[in-house]
Amino acid sequence: MEDALFRPKRRSGACLPPGVIGSSPGLCRAYDLARRVAPSRWSVLILGETGTGKEALARTVHAVSGRTGAFVKVNCANLDGGTTGSTLFGHERGAFTGAVHRHLGIFEQAHGGTLFLDEIGEMPLRTQAALLRVMENGVLRRVGGRQEVQVDVRVVAATHRDLERHRDTGQLREDFYCRLARLPIRLPPLHERGHDVLLIARDWLVRVPAESGLPPCTLDESAERWLLGRRLNGNVRTLQHLLARAALQSQGAPITAAMLSHAAGRGLSASPPVGSGPILRWLQDEGPASVATLARAFDLSPSTVLRRLKELRAQGLVRQLRRGRLTLYASTETATTVSPLGERERRVLQLALEKGSVTRGDVLARETVAPRTATRILVRLAGRGLLMMNGRGGSARRYRVTEEGRGAVEGRRYEFEPDI
Fold this sequence. Notes:
The chain is an alpha/beta fold and about 425 residues long. The protein is about 45% helix and about 15% strand. The strands form 5 sheets. The chain has a 5-stranded parallel β-sheet with strand order 2-3-6-1-7. A 3-stranded antiparallel β-sheet has the order 11-10-14. A two-stranded antiparallel ribbon has the order 4-5.
């Protein structure tokens, strides 16, 4: 049975368009909502951190809307105060010095289609008022022109700013905000999308190194855990920069956590996540685990893991399980009875009983598996409390069988009573 931590079941959710990689519920909800609101004429506001894929979602709204005009993008942060009117609404010949031809603004360019206003939170107040009039009435007047021009444009705006705060502080007009925020869609940041970070990383490592003349490479288990346990400020963009630096360093060898950490230390923001979400996802995917197992998985101190587990227990998301001296923690969605052993896992436990302890090399000598698979088996058995790790040392790390592991091999019932 494949380790859920390292091999998500789906490469991409069925709800997502080609090129958008992921399977997390939050991402699928955003795209499902985008499809449902696309046929309407109302403006859409996409909220999300930098690098979460706001433009891709905007393009999906346009593609599904049935509008036959163009998709036109403008970054509001780049609008020059002196030429904003011309950029948005166009100008007539002779309207100002240098205006030797009539110019169509972005609204007319997007007639019958979609206008994507990126970084809408950076738009000046004066421009907001002019934009609002066009959005409400569907008419504009070119700079230097006398006639009104009818336009049919669907506006999709995006921002990483807190627009409610901008409104409250006077940086955003109340009426403009209400017009924009009729249909808000939030894109989750990468650290809220669980295993999506691994799906995106694997896809990138398959495509990009070959295009750049670098040898293909993969992520080892430590790198996958490192990515799952980090909050990447900049999201997919930061992930791509990290992978590019690490791929250059690895030169075809598997990328390790140390390589990613080294790359992150050179100007990229990749910090441990805030809160206990990654630990909860581990327990939901892997089943019961000890504090020591979680501490190793996320490179945290046992005291930090205990504090986060306490927070999760207070929210009713995690419970404590005990049998004898062994204490494990489990998601409340997980049954208290541990799933039966697979034949390969049973053979590894039996081998550990025969030898007194077992290493990855011992597993490789007995089983026809890849080194990564051997490590996963040992980590999974340790996470369930059936093996206990002795010391440190990479592939030479030794595991011995616990009393619960002995009982599992002998067929004794293996379950835990909740600690009330």
